[in-house]
Every structure is written in C-alpha cells, then in structure tokens.
Amino acid sequence: MASLIYTKGTARIEYKNQGGRRSTLRLGKMPKANAKQALTHIESLIGAKQSGTTIPAVTAAWLKDVGSQLRGKLAAHDLVPGLKSAKLDDYLTAEIAARRDYSANTTRNAKMFQAAIVGYFGNCDLREITESSAADWKQSMVNNEYSPATISKWIVLARQWFKVALRKKLVDENPFADAKAGSQSNSQRLVFVDRATIQKVIDACPNTEWRLMLALSRYGALRVPSELRNLKWTDVNWEANTLTFDSQKTAKCGKPYRTIPLFPELRPYLDEAYEQASEGALFVFGDELRLGSDAVVRMRILKLLRRIGIQPWPRITHNLRASRIMELSDHFPQAVVAEWCGNSEAISQLHYQRAVTTHFDRAVSGETGLQSAITTRQSTPQNVTYNPTYSVTPNSAHVQSLAQGDMQNSREIMPVAMHGNQWTNVSVPPTGIEPAA
Predict the structure, then answer these.
(1) Is 393 helix (H, G, I), strand (E, B) or coil?
(2) For the whole model, what pTM was predicted?
(3) Which of 388, 349, 120, 182 has its CA nearest to residue 128?
(4) What is the pLDDT of residues 7-50, one digit of tens each?
(5) For residues 201 and 192, what is the distance between their CA atoms, to the nearest angstrom?
(6) pLDDT tens digits for 313-322?
(7) How many angstroms separate the CA atoms of 192 and 402, rounded?
(8) Gap between the Cα atoms of 371 and 358, Å rounded
C-alpha cells in the first residue's frame, strides 16, 4: 500500500492516493525505527481514508503524540483533519477584545503584555512557541533588566492565555505550564507616605474636591480614581459613621461594594465638601475626577508634588492606599483590615505591608507594651478560665471608636474585638495547653 524510502537519515513515504496518483509524504530526518513506525500508522490512515472506516485506536493514540509539523503534513495529504491554529498577535487581540468583564486597567495591562510577548516572538503561529523558546523569552527579560515583578506578571499572563488556547485546541501543549513565575511583589516600589508629607500635599491642593480625593486615598484606602467615580452623597451615613461605595475591583468576587468607617481624619474633608456641594447634588465629585482617566489624575498629582518640592513616590495613588493599610494593620485584626480595604489577607501582606521607620521607633521606645505583657504573663495565675469568644468581623465597636477618637485610641478596642473581654487575663501555661502529665 505504501513504501518507505530511507536515505542518509531522511525518510519519505510513497503511496497511491484515492485518485490512483502516486504521492510522496516527506517525513524529514528521523531514526529509521521511528520512520518504520510512522509507515505502519500512515498505512492505517490511508486504509481508513480509502475505505471510509474509523482509524485504529493505536493509530489514534499515535496521532496525539506526533508533533504539529508532521500533523500538518498529514493534514496536507488529507489523511487527518487539519489542525486549528492561530497567530499570536491576532489571537491575543481577539481574546482581549472579547473580555467584556475586564476593567479599563485590566485591559491596559493585558495589552501591555501583548506588546511584550509579540515584540519578542512576532506574529508567529501559537504552535511554534515551545518550552525552550518560552524560557528564552523569560531570560531575555532578565537580561534586559525587567523588574522581577514584571517578569512574573508576564509569565503568569502567558500561562493563562496559552491555557485558553489549549482548551480551544489551538496548541498541543502549554509551553508556559512549568515556567516559574516568581514573586509579583516589588518591595522597592512599596513606599510609606507619612502623615506630615501627605498633609503638605493636601494643603497645596487647588480645591476642595482634590483635598477630599487625596484624603480618601490616604486615610480611607480607596482606590483612586475608580472607587470615586460613582461615590454619591447618599453613600455617606452620617449617623452610623460609615461610607459605603461601589468597588469594581471586588465585584467579580461577589462583593460589589464595601463599607468603611468614617475615620476621624476623613471627616473635615467630607464636611467641607458637603457644605460646598450644590443643592440636590448627586455625586460627591464633579466630572473632572469622575470622568477623567487614571493617567490624567496621576499626572496632575505628579505636577502638584513637583510644584511644592516633594519627591514623587513610585506608585502615586497605590502608595497612599498602602500607607493606610499599614497603619490599620497595626491596630486592627488582619481580617477586619482586609474587609475594610477590599483585598485578601494574603494580598495585603504581599503587596501592602512592610516594616517602616515608625515600627522601629515604637520597638526601641517600648511603646508596644511588649515588656509589660511579658511581666503580666509571668505574674498571672495559671488556673484562669479561657474565654472562647473570638471575632474578627468589623462591628459597631470598631466604627464608633474610630468616629470618636484617633488611631492611637483605637488600639484600646482591639483586644476586645480579638479575644473577648477576658483578653488581658489569658496567658499560655508554660507546659502548653494540654494537661500536664
């Protein structure tokens, strides 16, 4: 039915097609044993094609393991169905455009990734990207001194998009499946903006709206400007001392909005804006901030910082939000802070928290009360009753304490929120929690 011709390590198979004409299928360079195995399966494919029967199971299994190049040659001879394929740039353009659930920032990041990977591979066929070439791309980013966080982000996105391609049968395997991404946290860009610095910036703002915007970012940990765009005066509950607003970032996780306390640092700026709002105003902010792009807002803040002689921090609004999360984490349980700020505890620790100068100052001065806690532990009777009450859910005690005092005073309610009213009377016996033998 078919014959193998093997010359100097190069194999080709000759056979007669359905029209009776002789055809040549060139296998290329390969070991003779592999060529003979291919001949057996190709004869099965020819027989199934001419008789209109199903190909044998063993040949079907062989087809799954052959490379895309040989599979393409078999498809060109009409022995197997053609493989679905796509060009890298065309594929990413279509997939990103189809993601209606993407926010503007997510779409922007996806397009930045597209520019990076297409810039290296070109608009090649997806099947041409192998594990080896994927590793070469990663190494090229290292050589070009991309930050580790950026490299990690691009590798993660490549893995995700090729996973989609694999599901759509556009590739035979995911070349990035085993690529190690690394950490997406960049500690060099995590800067704590202290209160004295942000106060200088707020005081230099051109109007009330800009003062409130920076206050909400630094003292409310709001994402600016996305979480300001739909903020309404009806979202402010003056009696309950809370602020509830839409959160596009967490909406896809089933949390379309979140509620934070009206922190004392926010009240002066909210009161000022409310007094100046026109009668019947719906939105807290005007069109300049509501409709302006993220880039425009960041650029105006940068210009303001340069005008008053303050060195801009790496991530203009993100560092303000991160600074507030650091402060809150010093005084409240992590689960409470995570719920207020709209992220998970793991993300908070990875991207928002670090040791800052104030931590060292407090540790050296003894402000933490660590020594007194050790003394209490040594003098407390060992037969106290453990109070199992444990709550990390934000409650009215948290909100009211914040509405009535500053952050330093808010520490007083943390033990109550964490361990119930007997927190100061509980100690761990030296022998452990199991009864002593």
Answers:
(1) coil
(2) 0.56
(3) 120
(4) 989 999 998 887 788 889 898 899 999 999 999 999 998 888 88
(5) 15
(6) 998 998 999 9
(7) 22
(8) 18
Any idea which residue has 């494919």 for tokens? 45
